[in-house]
Amino acid sequence: MCFLRKTFYFFLALFSLNCLYSENILLKDGRIFKGNLININKNKIVINVNNQIFEFSINSIEYLIASVNQNEYSIIKIKRKDGSFQEVNLIKLTEQALYYKNISENDLKLIKLSSITELILISKIDSISSKVNKLIIKQDNNIDIEIDINNLIAQIIKLKTIYSSDKDQKEEKTQDTISINIENPDFYERFWTKISKYLDVNSENLLWNLLENYSEKEKSINLVYNENNNPNKEKEIKNKIIELRKDFYKRAKKIILSSKM
C-alpha cells in the first residue's frame, strides 16, 4: 500500500510538472505545436513535444504563447543592451517582441527583441536527450479562401447542431445566416464572432492572438500607403489586405481544426 501511494504521488507530481509549464507555438505556415520549452535564445526555440525535441528558428514562428490554464510560467532571464539583467515570466514571444510579467507582478509588459542582447531559459523542465527535429516551412496549396471559409463555418455549425438542443439550434441559425466576405471592412470581427464560440479555451486564445497580430499588420499597411502620394494606392492597399487576410485564414483554419469542439 505504501509503495502504491508513493507511486501515485510520483506520477501526480510528474503530471503536475508537465501541466505547470506548457507553451503553444504557431508557425508562420499555420502549424501548431504544444510542448515544454527546454531552450530559448534570440535565434531559436527548442521544445519537447510528446518526448520529441523540435527546434524552431525565431523567424519561422508567428508567436510562442503560454497556455491560458497553466499555474506557472517558464522563467527566462533577459539581458538588455545596457548590460542589466532581469528574470521574468514568459507570456508571449514573437519575432519582434517579448511579452512578459515580472515574477511578483501581474501587469503584462512588452520589450522589443532589438533591445535585448540575450534570452536565457531559467526554469528548464527537460534536457535535450534525443534527436532534434528541425522543421522546414512548406508553401500551402492555393485554395479559394472565401468559399473555404464559409464551407468550414457551415461544417462546424452542422457538427454543433448534432449535439445541441432545439433552442440552441434556432439561436445558431439566426446568428450564422450571413456569410463572410474577405473584402468586408469588419472581416476579422465577423470571423471571430462566428468561430470563437465553437473553440476550446486554448484554441480560442491562439486564434485571438493570431487575429490581433494580423489586425495590427493591416493597420500598418494602411499607415504606410497613406503616407505615400501614390495614385494607385487604394488598389494596392486592397490587394495587400486581401493577401494578408488569405494568409491569416490559412493559419486560423489549422487552429480551428485542431480545437476540441
Task: Characterise this structure.
This protein has helices at about 1-20, 145-165, 165-175, 185-195, 200-225, 235-255, and strands at about 25, 30-40, 45-50, 50-55, 60-65, 75-80, 85-95, 95-100, 110, 115-120, 130-135. By secondary structure, the protein is an alpha+beta fold. Strands 1, 2, 3, 4, 5, 6, 7, 8, 9, 10 and 11 form an eleven-stranded mixed beta sheet that branches. α5 (about 200-225) runs antiparallel to α6. The model is unreliable at about 1-20, about 125-130 and about 135-140 (pLDDT under 50).
Largest sheet: 11 strands, mixed
β-strand percent reads 25-35%
Please state the overall shape, judged from the principal axes of the Cα atoms. globular
Give the N-terminus to C-terminus distance in angstroms. 40 Å
> How many domains, in number, for the residues?
2
Helix percentage range: 40-55%
| Protein structure class | alpha+beta
Count helical runs: 6
Strand/helix succession: HEEEEEEEEEEEHHHHH
